[in-house]
Amino acid sequence: MSELYDLAILGAGPAGISAAIYAARARLNTLWIERKFAQGGQIVDTYEVDNYPGLPGINGMDLGEKMAAHAEKLGLTPLRENVVSVEDEDGIKVIRTKKNEYRARAVILAFGAAHRTLGIPGEEALSGMGVSYCATCDGAFFRDRTVAVIGGGNVAAEDAILLSRTCKKVYVIHRRDQMRADQILQEKLFACENVEMIWDTVPVSIEGEEMVSGIKLQNKKTGEEKVLSLDGVFIAVGIVPNTELFGDLVKLDESGYIVAGEDCVTSTPGIFAAGDIRTKQLRQVITAAADGANAVISAEKIL
Ligand code: NAP
Fold first, then answer.
1. Which residues of 230-250 are buried (b: 16+ CB within 10 A; e: fewer)?
2. Residue 212 contacts residue 206 (beta carbons within 8 Å)
3. Which residues line ligand 1 (CB under 6 A)?
4. How far is the CA of 111 from the centre of ligand 1 (A)?
5. Rg (Cα) of the chain, in Å, rounded?
6. The overall pTM is greater than 0.85
7. Tens-digit pLDDT profile for residues 183-222
8. What is the pLDDT of residue 1?
9. What does the pLDDT read at residue 2?
10. For the residues 75-87, what does the mean pLDDT come to?
11. Tally of CB atoms within 10 A around 141
């Protein structure tokens, strides 16, 4: 029979790393698993994080590395494995990866969320051929080119600001007539001279044979359709929680998020949910890090 850990932490974004820091300080016998090499979750793809106290304007990758180094200093680094199932077997949590099987008395689910797709013709076929979900990763390929960013949230605004520094022209295509991005980001965005907003408009299809050549748009108010010539399309239409493995384990809400409050307690005893994966008002680095701490405190109560 394999070793029985006190706690398993699944994921190494800000929530998972923060949980690891608190678990190490609580001297819990902890198993920590992350499938990706880079730690930091979604912030790794973020050019600049400007609202984490004490570290204004820090690059997302740098912030992830700093957080991971903190956990490592306390003796915890994640195993690089791909979790394929988590089950509750008479109160013992069994975590299976592609290679191994582990057992723990409590589990913190901190798998975060991933980008949402539009589901329109051309999107999948041209992914990596001009369609991107990460301006920080792919923006440099579009120097002096014309691109569009789809979306009206913080990520869309940040992506468009970043791309405006190197691209010739950046269109921001949004389905409503106002953005939901933070006011400070909107001010920065509207001050970019080579950014043009296209309001009340949805993408219908992404055009191109081998590479993106344009995007077909429809104005929602007039119904009018037109094709805009482009070299790249950056899709920033929100996130979906990485909960596909957990539907039978814990209660999910109608959008797929794990139902849990600030104490991170889920519908299943001994299973806790931290960060973007759970129901919450605000999904940011600071709230994810707070969840990691709260989840460990809640787990300690049942250990
Ligand atoms: P978001 O805030 O959910 O915004 C998604 C945007 O995409 C919305 O403007 C939405 O339109 C639009 N959209 C959704 N589905 C669409 C569709 N099918 N077609 C066209 N447009 C669609 O997502 P996000 O910007 O990716 O941010 C994700 C989370 O990370 C948020 O909680 C955000 O606050 C957080 N974040 C924070 C920061 C920061 O604090 N600096 C930075 C990055 C991310 P509607 O507005 O009409 O709904």
1. bbbbbbbbebebbbebbeebb
2. yes
3. 51, 118, 150-156, 158, 175-176, 180, 202, 236-239, 283-284
4. 19
5. 21
6. yes
7. 999 999 999 999 999 999 999 999 999 999 999 999 999 9
8. 73
9. 83
10. 97
11. 13
How confident is residue 47, by pLDDT bands cut at 50, 70 and 90? confident
| Distance spanning both ends of the chain, measured CA to CA | 20
Mean pLDDT of the chain: 97
CA angle 280, 299, 265 (to 5 degrees): 30
d(CA 29, CA 67): 20
Q: How far is CA 297 from the centre of its chain?
A: 24
Q: Which two tokens stand for residue 151?
A: 């979306």
Q: Measure the CA–CA gap between 59 and 48, rounded to whole angstroms.
A: 4
Torsion of CA 284, 15, 106, 35, to 10 degrees: 120
Alpha carbons 22 and 179: distance in angstroms, whole number: 37
The Cα–Cα gap between 202 and 52 comes to 32
Please check the confidence at residue 159 and state whether its pLDDT lies above 90: yes
Residue with tokens 């006190």: 6
Q: Which of 187, 188, 242, 284 to mutate to test the pocket of ligand 1 (most atoms within 8 A of CB)?
A: 284
